[in-house]
Structure of UDP-glucose 4-epimerase:
Amino acid sequence: MPTETPKTIFVTGGAGYIGSHTVLELLQESYSVIVLDNLSNSSPESLSRICALLQKPITFYQGSLSKSQLLDKIFTTHKVWAVIHFAALKSAPESVEKPLDYWGVNVGGTMGLLEAMRRHGVGRLVFSSTAAVYGTPVDPTSLIPETHQTVPMNPYGRSKLAVEHLIRDLCTTTPSFGAVILRYFNPVGAHKSGKIGEDPKGQPGNLVPFVLEVVSGKRKRIDITGTDWETRDGSGVRDFIHVVDLAKGHVASLERADFLASSSSSTTTTSSPTTSPIPNYEIYNMGSGLGTSVLEIIKTMSAVTSRPIDHVAAPRRAGDVAQVVADPARANKILGWRAEMTVKDMCEDAWRFKEANPEGYTSVWEGDSSGVLGVDGRLERF
Ligand SMILES: NC(=O)c1ccc[n+]([C@@H]2O[C@H](COP(=O)([O-])OP(=O)(O)OC[C@H]3O[C@@H](n4cnc5c(N)ncnc54)[C@H](O)[C@@H]3O)[C@@H](O)[C@H]2O)c1
């Protein structure tokens, strides 16, 4: 936790689902926050609500990662202590249709960010990666450790793995750089306040927003793609993690990135718990270590909302697997972090946000929204 003057964290993609929950946790831990987001999949209302909830300001830049002049302006104007990099395109099916977009934003955008960090001497980074980098589990009955092979099945997963390699190469040549890679499993839920939550633009790509559209009557039913897996109820099993637990994982990772940046040139590196011999680069799974089936999620959501959720069996999707569950032991041990909230908490919190915000974030923001969001949540444009 920062002392005296607050440390400033630059959060790319901070208006989005996981980014906004992380911004909230950072502010609660007394960091100061600068957000860059092009709002391609989010609304600045998430940030505005956080300001009003916590009575703290956020500096917001509306713009793209690919604008090097904007990045220079941000790094020149603010004394950035560390970067948390969420901004990306994230739909695996869409990435199959638009591979160039995914490589351009996810890899090209990250290259621009890393170049700017180097130009401005900022050397602490936490990066959003994904369990999709693993591909099909070698043993579907076992937990997946960070040392599992990485054979991603789609352009999205490949673009994230490429960024991991890019950051690793930068760490190799720049010992003063410290990077923590977080591979998320399935983030679900919302902040307890019901003020911020998951509000995807267009058709939801994840299970829970889809289920909630059935609960709220926007969709008739949900297809269970694959009901003949070798799992306890035949539906796929995944590792669901509450988004607030995940957000706290980022806060824990900041101090780790600082440690890596400051100690990588020392001789303690052989005992460093990395998955690679690069002493200033570490990878952690962000998961609970517990498997929950798709049908169990539907059952829990139905109980939480006291509503039936119509679902039908559908064929398996190409590339799907029976079970994908994290081994989170490394993050538990080294980061001192663990997922604490239950699937019931995830469903209750996701429903609270959906019930309070059936249409998601609805404020209309005309023009460029760059400026300072004040403690009342109002935007003072630059
Ligand atoms: N949600 C998941 O299930 C999941 C799982 C694994 C990994 N991740 C990764 O976590 C990160 C955050 O995911 P999320 O669920 O919060 O997604 P999100 O879409 O809600 O957040 C991403 C944010 O980045 C912004 N953005 C996209 N391209 C940008 C660009 N070029 N410049 C500036 N801003 C840009 C979007 O507007 C959005 O606000 C992503 O990197 C994603 O790949 C997400």
